[in-house]
């Protein structure tokens, strides 16, 4: 019992996330867990050694607020090589506690009470609470149909003089869609002449399949002038628990982000920054990620091709949506719970990400798992009819 009786919650509608609920259930039932959005295999031993070495070398005190210079240099070089945009390493880069902190910093730095932020649903679950904590108003737009197509007209209609920010995510969790060049260009013209900041969540930037290309907001001159691009080392290097990431943005925007960063955490884990600064010198470490996960996706889809689940292969991210409408008409939350209890397999019901819990009878499965786990999962999925 707390001595404080009048707790006026700043997030009164916030519920325990579906991820925690499903993970807990999966654990209790000993289920094969494809609900969690992270690998069940190890990060590179060499990278771990680099962190330890940095500790032994004495890099154990605060790093600079924006991150150490050698790491910022590597980030800037990487973006220039891949997207042709040269950010200023001293003014336009910040190393953060995962992409989640970068997103939170960006929203906190710019969203004032009453400001509107357009969020395309289904969406990663940290955006809306972050907007609300800052007094902003999430303006939700549901991507269309079972394939989650972006309708630019629908976005245009929601833009008002109160719109402060638009959040996009490509490659997209949970749909596995990626924005095409033409979609990014349409976005560029839609925002032209406005004061809207684009918050571009690109944490799955290197997990892209079938010769597709990741079109970063950095690559489009007019978009990049208003964009804060967020990235995650955790997703790229199989160490989500290290919570390391970064954001890049034009100097005037980054200056505001730094004000929040300073009073929020000031800086992030120093030895890990040293390690990433070294590790990023070998571009293969991230450039081969697409092939690595494409093999996993293909293996998983080959294993489940004769099941009663229907699918379109994911174009990016390490998630695959499976449509179970041929099996049952149960709501996705009920069905996913039943799959854990009766069959021993955990997934995420996609309605949890959608506006008004729209339910297309789809479940999200994470294939960032060992072959053994994927095989076990497929055996189970085969039995569900
Ligand atoms: C779309 C999206 N953005 C951001 C994140 C969080 O990234 P990080 O672990 O680097 O904070 C996730 C993790 O699931 C995600 O799916």
Whole-number total of structural domains = 2
CATH architecture call of the largest domain: 3-Layer(aba) Sandwich
> Which fold does the CATH topology of the largest domain refer to?
Aspartate Aminotransferase, domain 2
Main beta-sheet strand count, sense and barrel state: 7 strands, mixed
Written description of the protein model:
There is one protein chain. By secondary structure, this protein is of the alpha/beta class. It folds into two domains: 115 residues, Aspartate Aminotransferase, domain 1; 238 residues, Type I PLP-dependent aspartate aminotransferase-like (Major domain) (Aspartate Aminotransferase, domain 2, 3-Layer(aba) Sandwich). It has 15 helices and twelve strands. The strands form three sheets. Strands 2-8-7-6-5-3-4 form a seven-stranded mixed beta sheet, with helices on both faces. Strands 9-12-11 form a three-stranded antiparallel beta sheet. Strands 1-10 form a two-stranded parallel ribbon. Strand 5, helix 7 and strand 6 form a beta-alpha-beta unit. It is globular. The chain starts with 17 loop residues before the first helix and ends with a helix. The relative contact order is 0.17. The structure holds pyridoxal-5'-phosphate (PLP). Pyridoxal-5'-phosphate binds next to helix 4.
């Amino acid at each position: 019992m707390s001595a404080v009786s009048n707790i006026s919650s700043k997030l009164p509608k916030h519920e325990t996330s579906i991820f925690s609920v499903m993970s807990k259930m999966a654990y209790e039932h000993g289920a094969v867990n494809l609900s969690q959005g992270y690998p069940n295999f190890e990060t590179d031993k060499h990278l771990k050694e680099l962190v330890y070495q940095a500790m032994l070398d004495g890099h154990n005190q605060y790093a600079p607020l924006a991150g150490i210079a050698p790491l910022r240099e590597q980030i800037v070089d990487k973006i220039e090589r891949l997207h042709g945009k040269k950010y200023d390493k001293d003014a336009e880069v910040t190393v953060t506690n995962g992409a989640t902190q970068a997103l939170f910093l960006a929203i906190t730095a710019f969203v004032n009470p009453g400001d509107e932020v357009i969020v395309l649903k289904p969406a990663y679950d940290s955006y809306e609470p972050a907007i609300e904590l800052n007094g902003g108003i999430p303006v939700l737009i549901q991507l269309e149909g079972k394939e989650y197509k972006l309708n630019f007209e629908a976005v245009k209609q929601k833009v008002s003089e109160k719109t402060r920010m638009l959040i996009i995510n490509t490659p997209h969790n949970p749909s596995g869609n990626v924005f095409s060049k033409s979609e990014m260009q349409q976005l560029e013209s839609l925002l032209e002449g406005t004061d809207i900041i684009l918050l571009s969540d690109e944490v799955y930037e290197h997990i892209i399949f079938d010769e597709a290309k990741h079109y970063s907001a950095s690559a489009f001159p007019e978009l990049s002038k208003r964009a804060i691009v967020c990235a995650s080392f955790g997703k790229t290097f199989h160490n989500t628990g290290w919570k390391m990431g970064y954001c890049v943005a034009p100097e005037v925007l980054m200056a505001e982000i730094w004000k929040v960063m300073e009073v929020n955490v000031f800086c992030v884990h120093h030895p890990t920054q040293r390690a990433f600064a070294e590790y990023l010198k070998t571009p293969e470490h991230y450039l081969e990620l697409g092939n690595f996960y494409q093999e996993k996706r293909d293996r998983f889809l080959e294993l489940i091709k004769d099941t009663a689940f229907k699918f379109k292969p994911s174009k990016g991210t390490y998630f695959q949506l499976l449509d179970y409408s041929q099996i049952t008409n149960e709501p996705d939350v009920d069905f996913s719970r039943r799959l854990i209890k009766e069959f021993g397999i955990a997934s995420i019901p996609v309605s949890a990400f959608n506006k008004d819990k729209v339910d297309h009878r789809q479940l999200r499965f994470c294939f960032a798992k060992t072959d053994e786990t994927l095989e076990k999962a497929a055996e189970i999925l085969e039995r569900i009819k």
